[in-house]
Design goal:
By secondary structure, the protein is mostly helical. Helix content is 55%, strand content 4%. It has 6 helices and 2 strands; from the N terminus they run βαααβααα. Strands 1-2 form a two-stranded parallel ribbon. The longest helix is centred in the middle third of the chain and has 22 residues.
Length: 165
């Protein structure tokens, strides 16, 4: 039985790229959990979880974190270029389409979001991405931050329709 290729547009507000044509996720959860575990190990070994490394970055005392961020930015840029120029498909054969961003006056949504993110990162000393890896590494105090982040995500979901997007 031949499967027809469909096009999936990656909505920046709700990513559904892991769904197959029938709308199910056959083995995606296993792959995502394995990728998360490997990423957590990478975070621990590269010291990007270290509160001291984050403070060094915000005090401009070390290039380590800036190098990691620059490397991630380079990989993301090359990946997006490869996806668009080579017309790559998702694991289930669906075409990947990256839509244009919606312009806002002077990019205020990006500046405001970046400022809130940076303020939280600086005050907490941990980026939201590796919080679970910190918890897994034995830093149990980060559990308060994880619960707070989940509560903030829930509040955003509840207020999303009333916020300017």
């Amino acid at each position: 039985m031949r499967r027809e290729h469909t096009t999936v547009t990656a909505d920046p507000e709700m990513l559904v790229a892991c769904l197959d044509a029938e709308g199910s996720r056959p083995a995606a959860a296993v792959y995502f959990v394995a990728a998360g575990i490997l990423l957590g190990i990478l975070f621990v070994k590269s010291e990007v979880l270290s509160w001291y490394r984050i403070q060094e970055m915000f005090r401009f005392q070390s290039f380590h974190m800036y190098g990691v961020i620059a490397g991630a930015l380079a990989v993301a840029m090359l990946s997006i270029q490869a996806i668009t120029r080579l017309k790559l498909h998702a694991w289930n054969g669906e075409a990947i389409v990256i839509p244009q961003k919606h312009a806002t006056p002077r990019g205020v949504r990006y500046w405001a979001g970046g400022a809130i993110f940076g303020l939280g990162w600086g005050l907490l000393g941990a980026c939201p991405g590796p919080m679970f890896a910190l918890f897994g590494a034995g830093v149990t105090a980060i559990g308060v931050a994880i619960v707070s982040a989940m509560a903030g995500t829930w509040v955003y979901g509840a207020l999303q329709s009333r916020l300017p997007h």
